[in-house]
Amino acid sequence: MDRTERLGAEAEGALRVYLGRRVEHSMFLLSNMREAGIEASEHPRSGVYVGAFAGANLVGVACHYRKGNLVVNAPKHAVELGQAAVSASRRPLAGVVGPDSQVTAIADALGLPVGSDAQMDESDGLYRLELAQLRVPEPLRDGEVVGRPLDAADLDRVCAWSVRYHVETIGETETPELHRDVKAEHEAALGRGDIWVLERRGELVARTAYNARLPEAVQVGGVWTPHELRGLGFARCVVASHLLTARDAGVRTAILFTDDANTPARRAYAALGFERIGRYRLLLLRSPFRHG
Fold first, then answer.
1. Choosing a second label site near 79 at 20 to 30 A (CA), which of 102, 150, 222, 235?
2. Closest to 258 (Cα-Cα) out of 284, 235, 279, 288
3. Which residues lie closer than 8 Å to 111 by C-beta, 6 or more apart?
4. How much helix, strand and coil, in percent to the nearest 5, is found in the chain?
5. Whole-model pTM?
6. Which of 197, 196, 167, 198 is nearest to 182 (CA)?
7. b/e burial code for range 76-86 (CB count within 10 A of at least 16 → b)
8. Where is the N-acetyltransferase domain positioned along the sequence (predicted)?
C-alpha cells in the first residue's frame, strides 16, 4: 500500500469494480453506496469512504456511516483504513462490520470492547447461493404456505416481531425509541418488497428481509419466526419465497450470514442450497467509542 485517501465521486466507478469482485464481503458497502452515493450527506445510509491504493490500484476500502458503524473490505490494510475512515468522519464509532479477520484486527488495534463487553459480537458463517440452484421447500411448492410483500395491515404484528428480533438477536434494549424506529423502517418498506411475510391459511407465521440489495444480488437478514411456530419449516419457506421473487426479477446471487450456534438456521439455509464460503463478524458496541 502506497497511500490512503478519502474517496469522492471520481472514484465511484473504481470502487464499484473493486467491491464487485468481492460481492459476498461487499453487500452493505455496495447497497448503501447505490442508495446514498459516495459523497457524505444527510442521507441515513451515507458515510465517509476511504480507500487504500497500491500505485493507481484500489486495494481496500472502509466506510464510516452516519449511524456510526464502520464497514470494511480490506484484506491487507483493514487497521489503517478503519482508523482513517473514523478520523475523517469525526463521528463516534458504534460498531465494526466485515470479514472476521479484518474486524478482529481493527478491534484489537483500537482496543474496542468485545465478547460479553459488547452489545453484540458474533463471528458468523458466511453463506452464498446462486439462485438458479435454489431448492424450493415442498410446503411452498404445494401452496400450503404463501409468501408476499409486507402490507400495511401487517404492521402491528410484524413490527412486534422485529422488536423481538432486535432485542433477542442484536442485543438492543426494548425502548419506546426502538418501537418508533422499527415502525418507521417498516412503513418506509411498504411497496418496496424488501420485507416479506409468510402466511399459512391466512395467518402470518414468519418474516424475512433484505438488509442489502443490488440488481444482481441480495443479502438476507431479519429472518424471524415466533417462538411458538418454530420447528415447522416456516423460516426456510419465507426466505425461499422472497428469493424466488428476486430470481424472477433477474437477481442471480443471495448472501447471508448466521451464527454457528444457530443450528436450526444453518440447517434451513443448507436445505435451500446455501453453501458456506467464509466468516463475517458483527461487533456492535454498547456505547459510542471515540477514536483518538
1. 222
2. 279
3. none
4. 40, 30, 30
5. 0.94
6. 167
7. ebbbbbbbbbb
8. 145-292
3-state secondary structure 43-93: CCCCEEEEEEEECCEEEEEEEEECCCEEEEECCCCHHHHHHHHHHHHCCCE
The correct CATH number of 135-272 out of 3.30.470.20, 3.40.630.30, 3.40.1000.10, 3.40.190.10 is 3.40.630.30
End-to-end CA separation in angstroms for the chain: 23
The CA-based dihedral angle spanning residues 263, 266, 271, 273, taken in that order and rounded to the nearest 10 degrees: -160
What's the pLDDT tens digit per position in 71-98? Answer: 999 999 999 999 999 999 999 999 999 9
Per DSSP, the three-state class of 14 is: helix
Count CB atoms within 10 A of the CB of residue 282: 21
What's at 140, amino acid-wise?
L
Q: What is the pLDDT of residues 236-247, one digit of tens each?
A: 999 999 999 999
CATH 3.40.630.30 occupies which residues in the chain?
3-124+282-289, 135-272
3-state secondary structure of 232: coil
CA 97, 98, 104: angle at the middle one, nearest 5?
85
- For 126: left if phi > 0, alpha if psi spans -120 to 50, otherwise beta; the answer is beta
- What is the chain's length? 292
- Residue carrying the nine cell digits 432486535: 166
Map grid coordinates 459476498 to a residue.
Answer: 24
